[in-house]
Amino acid sequence: MAKDSSWAYLPDDLRRLASLADRVRAAAICRPWGSAAGKLPPTRLPWVLFANGTLFDLGNDSVPHPHHRLRLPDDCWRYSAGENMMFLVHQRDGSCSLLNALSGATTRLPELAGPNRAPMKAIGKVVVSSSADGDPIIVAVLIGRDVIVSTCRPVGESNSFLLGALHHEAIDIALFQGKIYALSRGHVLETLDLSNGHQKGFKLNYSTELMIKHPWQNYHHQDFQDGFPLVKIYLAESGGKLLMVKRWLRCPWMRTASSPDAASRRTFRFEVWEADLSERRWKKLDGCLEGQALFVSRPCSKSLPAGHGVRGDSIYFLNKLYQWKQPEAPLGDSGVYKIRDKTFIPLLRDSMPSLPWKSERFPSWFFPVQF
């Protein structure tokens, strides 16, 4: 009788909660329910994370309040670091820590603080990844031409710290097959090879994987009589491949009161290139992403398989928000690009509740790992 009354024997429709926020709250106060509910297929659509810690649930955007507020320290700069993780830089002393935004677990990184360290508020990107089983978590921080690498070891063990200088100023970094890859505006791909071990720590081996640049297409004159093209570049892993995503925006020559950035900067084109590491060149991908979907934003990019609300062969994109917030474009220049037919569709539904705006530095993708 006691066995039949356990949480694990509840019907699926009772164990399943539509909102991840509800699942997180329920799991926090009832671990047996969380263990049983964790066996259900997760919602794959990521959330949108704002700088004040507000999460917007894309998978349940039709409910009255699709928001969840994270409890974050007030005295810090915050950076999305992939999945549940956030990288915090505390203003009082420059110390750094890694926060699991859903569980609240914090790992302090004292080796990143100090008078000789680079100014952490100038961070361009943070990536966090777990190596093979038993290896420590790797944290890589991009600041201009420097990549700071640290490990998150258990309490009582000292963390490893490395500072690697790149040959080219990078605009994005990614962890791929045990290496840190850094991409420059000129499409040069550099690697920092991590040779790690519990006793020996980490060692950086520098190499330039790709030096061949493909030509930039010019869309001036006939297509841009009233403006110019702006290209943003992202680096992401998808299906065992390292991809460069190029996003083309149409920008006006001059901003006006009737045409602020939120309305005038519009994405009109995407290109996806695969890094052929053996041939040391970029190969353009046309037609599909082999069923995967790419989620790109400056703070965080990732790929997911199709299904559970995720459109395959599509690129979901977010852009930095500016001070002009318009009801018809609450997330600014954001949307979904379908690669097969080269068309755009809105990211949000037509009728949306009011969204919380607290900072222009985000939004970012947030990929919750359920526990």
Automatic annotation (TrEMBL):
Domain KIB1-4 beta-propeller positions: 66-337
InterPro entries: KIB1-4_b-propeller
UniProt xrefs under Pfam families: Beta-prop_KIB1-4
PANTHER family in the cross-refs: DUF295 DOMAIN-CONTAINING PROTEIN (PTHR33110:SF145), F-BOX/KELCH-REPEAT PROTEIN-RELATED (PTHR33110)
Full protein name: KIB1-4 beta-propeller domain-containing protein
Lineage: Eukaryota, Viridiplantae, Streptophyta, Embryophyta, Tracheophyta
